[in-house]
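Notes to self after the call with IL:
- keep both proteins in one doc
- input above output, always
- annotate only the second one for now

Protein 1:
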Amino acid sequence: MEFVTLSEVLDVLTSIIFAICLCLLTTLTIFWWILPNQKFQNLRRCGFDGPTPSFPLGNIKEMKRNKSLKSSFSSSCESMALDITHDIHSTISPYYSSWQKSYGKVFIYWLGTEPFLYITDPEFLKKMSTKVLAKTWGKPSVFRKDRDPMFGNGLVMAEGNKWVHHRHIIAPAFSPLNLKRMAIMMVDSTKKMIESWISQINSGHFEIDVEREIVTTAGEIIARASFGMGDENGKKVFDQLKTLQMTLFKTNRYVGVPFEKIFNIKKTLETRKLGEEINKLMFSIIEARMNSNDKIQHQQDLLGHLLKENNGTYGQLNKALTKKELVDECKTFFFGGYETTSLSITWTLLLLALHEDWQNQLRDEIKEVVGKEELDINFLADLKKMKWVRSEALRLYPPSPNVQRQAKEDIRVDNIKVPKGTNIWIDVVAMHHDMTLWGNDANKFKPERFMNDANGECHHTMGYLPFGFGGRACIGRNLIFMEYNIVLTLLLTKFKFKLSPSYHHSPTIMLSLRPTYGIPLIVQPL
């Protein structure tokens, strides 16, 4: 009988460890250097220029280094809070601004080993988009994985026929009749906020962080009007989504680097845990609604319509949404419902605080169109100047500062080929502040530019994209418009707004375009 010696065991273990290390090294070499370099050379042959990547980080290191420009800008703004500029692109995205000067309005940059086609040329975007149907646009797979805890496979991330099917089920919830039913809850929640403000003012506290207040109220509105949630459940979902957003977008990120989640395991586990908690809560709300006896009343909100439309697909093979898909849609619209609306209103209040003449013009219009009686939402569409102000606020400070797509097939634009699988990054902020599109006053607040033109007299129809473009444009924009008009009308009939000396102008991108330090305003009753 032969015995295996310790040295022989160690030799075997050493060989196994060596083989594993060699396999790992080979895998990393392939995914971190060989494949991305092949992509890089292919894109150069297709006619694209751009900053030279250093794999496996791509251009991330340069992007992080350039962010120091933003920090110095923020510091200077803190020392001169009232000297505010709307020329924000070079401060929120200093790397894009710098690369534009070197490579123009269309170029390739790299997030890790993922190439992104950067576009701020509306003509190029128009030519490219005319060749692609809405359902054949993809979403960058790197973002689908990164943002899965927040959106899952909801409409924002869905692709192909799945996107078509989800949109078909969701669209009826945003009909004019259904939006009017939600209006009552919007009015109630806004009046509740107004009462809170009056109480603070009567206590001698005139400075109010309108961003925090508006975001909270918008969260309450979307919870009640869209999902029938009580205050407790609505606040839970709202708080968890905000925490998830901060966890995802406020930490050091290496999106696009292969195996990034493994190397950043703490953040990965934290976001997964938060996502599972939100899923569990949303699932319990859906289950309770499905088992509720009060079907007719519940059908009036977004969740009710989702379930009603979904039930209508039973019996059709693979047509009904799964409970996981329902949860994903609810998360997507809960986040989108309060984030986009609240930021649109928040940035508008800042602009009105800086331009009191426009505050007065809007009040005069409200008195003329709506009157002093109880708010009648049927008159809100006649507030033309409010529409101009809203459009200009969305131009200067678009809550969705960029649009992402992925080419699911080769796309040819003139003599350039966009290869299948290329990620696309459309810089909305850059286009909205481009003087070649808007004139020398591109960075000035001028709502009258929208007086006779829904595109604000932009020199190109694709130069104004506050809600995306084409068939994949934001499905809930009419809900946003209605809530915007209701909240702003009620606020302007009760208060006047001035900029607080403590305000620091430092817009930042954290998925959405938001103020870093909130928006404290001096709020005075009329």
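Protein 2 (the one to annotate):
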Amino acid sequence: MSRRRPHTGDVPADPEDAAGTSPDVRTGPEDVSGRGPDDGESANLQVARTDSEDVSGQAAEISGGRAKARTRLASVAALDGAGAPHGLRGQARLRPLPLAVAVGLLGATLLAGVLVGSAGLPVGGVLKALADRIPFVHVDSGLGVIDENVLFQLRVPRALMAALVGGMLAVAGAGYQGVFRNPLADPYLLGAAAGAGVGATLVIALVPGDPGYAVPLAAFVGAIGGVALAYLLGSAAAGRGNGTATLVLAGVAVSSFLAAVQTLIQQMRAEELQRIYSWILGGVGSADWHQLALVFPYALVSTVVLLAHGRLLDVLSVGDEEAASLGLSASRVRLTVLVAASLATASAVAVSGLIAFVGIVVPHVVRRLAGGSYRIVLPLSLLGGAAFLEVADLVARTVIRPGELPLGVVTAFVGGPFFVVVLRASRRQVDT
């Protein structure tokens, strides 16, 4: 009497091993043909084939589970650099050398922004005047009252404002790119620029004379309102679908509608077109200490929030499901980063007008040079954006001296060729 082998119920890890445990599967064609055309045996062969396919499918599921486990390990590594494999630990943290280079570059551009100008102040006198403002340091600069006013009431606030606006736009752009998982997303994606344009255009067109600080206030409110409207529309239309894609479409729709409203206002008040376009094209020539004091708190809060979410954006980049498996609420992180980035964008637009391409060019360059982790991209984008706009402002006020180019025109001259380079690089990657 033959003894049956007990069934353990374990699923073999390999389909070939599973095939080896089934004598029906290993039956050769010669054995089958020797038995004759029997319907019952044919049915048994069909069942054996089906069982073999089921085992193969189970093995594929096991392989897929291992892949998901590896993905979760990568997510954990992104959440905590100490848990990353040895080859990834250096990439997940900001090294001192890139940080020192970025700080040095920003310091050099700030100093150049203070030294260069149409007034022709002596370099030695400017440096001594700056050193004299350091606590417990007293140096005779030799500058007159007018020269000191030019230095501390025009050049220094302008240089600081250019750095502040550039840093906010760049770090906001990096935040948007992390939320939408797209390296070409920019801070104006959800209608901040269009909303700010409508607010500023309304004040310029309706308020006679010099509106003063009403233009920055209206631009700030318009930018926040445009982003809020896009987010509400996108959230209402998304349901359980792809929220980020719906949000982008809502931003496009809101931007188009607000641009139409702005064009209508311009047509109704054509005599104010020069003032409107001078604001739209962007610039920091009207910066003063009062504007800096108004914008700085918003810039500080938004920057701290964005920098604190670097790790969470790294986890979010692997997908919402993996983030949820680690206990992270993807929707909450996305909303927080969007609010902080939109606040930074609205503050920058309110005092500088519409300056394009900073939020795209700088994070993309940082990502290519220093790595893709947002713990690296966010702080270096902040410093790199400040230095980039400082250089752009220097170009704007020296190319056609004593006149000035709009700052948005200078950044557009950089951003256009940059997109061509990015497209060619992307095409090469696709071809390879």
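Annotation: Residues 6 and 364 are 61 Å apart (CA to CA). Residues 18-83 form one domain.
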